[in-house]
Amino acid sequence: MAGIEKRVQWLNLQLNLLALTFFLIGGLLLWAWYYDQLPPEKQHEVYHTALLVSIPVVALFFTWFHIWLAIKMMFLPLRFFGIWQYSDTGIGIGWQGVIPRKAKKMGKIAFNCARPYLMGPKDWFARVDTSLLFAKIHPMLERVARASMASVMRRHFPSMLAKDGRLPAGVEDELVSIVMEKVEESFPEMWHKVTDKLCDPVIGLDNDGMIVSVFNEHKELLNHFFLSMGDKEFRFIERCGAALGFVCGLIQLLAFNCLDATGRMILLPGTGFFLGIFTNWLAIQMCFKPCHPRPVRVFGWYLGSIQGLFLKRQRDVATLYAKLLVDHFFDFHKVIAYLQTIPVWADLQDIYNENIQNMMKQTMGKLVTWIAPVAVGSHKLRAVEDDLVGASAERIAENDELQQAASQYLAIATDVFRSNAVAMQKMPPDEFERLLHPVFQEDERLSQCGQTRGG
């Protein structure tokens, strides 16, 4: 679906560019024909008038263009494009979007600005009822237990199995029943140990590690994150800049008409240079200042209040921010994938293995009774125990149905989206504006590009 939307957007862009090209070419041809029909004495007058009229039009177009290009250069290209760069920094003879180039720093900013106001892993996991979670995954765990026992028994005691390669029905049911009973008894304790590790601010999830890692590896996601939040602000900056460029172009027109040839040569590039600085600066200020609503009164009459455009949208942006977090970071599979890349994963595996081994020791009595006729030794039992632990862990990791059931329950129980959206809607405006404002503060090239192209 997302691919179709991108293709439609690309097609619309191509059609708009094509229409604009035809319009410009048609206008130029019409103008050339009209100009050619004029007598020589009129051509000079029309040329001078057209030159004056073109000043605010050109100011509008180029002010819009340099702001549009500067914004694009903030986000594109995702990877360095050029001849040479210094030590994979994105700096050199070429260009890389400022935001992708500073992915780690922007990820830290996104986390640090919002984290003090958001619920953390400890709050989420406190909402989980382990008995309900176990009930949701019980059927899948039981199938895992049966399959694990069957595979391990086939490896170590093939002669003890039935013709279908499985344990005798009565024995299998009794063993699985004991295993599931022990798992249910130990599940709350194991959950508590796991969540304690996950809530650790140093090695767990309650830090900027995951966001920074995902942003750094998927720079297109970082762009999507900031572009989604600031979509209206970026469009406003483009349009506001164009309007301001037109107004300043009118001022240039008045001054141009009063100067001699030398003054005119200095006026346009000189004012264009400062126009680039001013339009960018003013447009950004209108997005973020004032932070708090400020009343406007004329002769004591209250006309309304003004506030930065981004801050006026706090409620909508907070909801979008919370949704982006849930969709791209708090997804069950993404969390598991991230955990496997950091040291805490070894601790989680140790907790799981310890829990399973304790449970196996409690159930080995029944298993030993059943396999007594083959008179196995302690080393054999140890091998069986280790294989059962490994087989069950492997099947749990591959069981999409189990993961889906756990993910659905955790999403409902923790209610991360609603909690975060409400919390961010209540953030102080001066703190909330830091979610997007750093994009512009980091990108001083936005103004530099503006002033250079303006000149």
UniProtKB/TrEMBL annotation:
<feature type="transmembrane region" description="Helical">
    <location>
        <begin position="236"/>
        <end position="254"/>
    </location>
</feature>
<protein>
    <submittedName>
        <fullName>Uncharacterized protein</fullName>
    </submittedName>
</protein>
<feature type="transmembrane region" description="Helical">
    <location>
        <begin position="12"/>
        <end position="34"/>
    </location>
</feature>
<keyword id="KW-0472">Membrane</keyword>
<keyword id="KW-0812">Transmembrane</keyword>
<keyword id="KW-1133">Transmembrane helix</keyword>
<feature type="transmembrane region" description="Helical">
    <location>
        <begin position="46"/>
        <end position="71"/>
    </location>
</feature>
<feature type="transmembrane region" description="Helical">
    <location>
        <begin position="266"/>
        <end position="284"/>
    </location>
</feature>
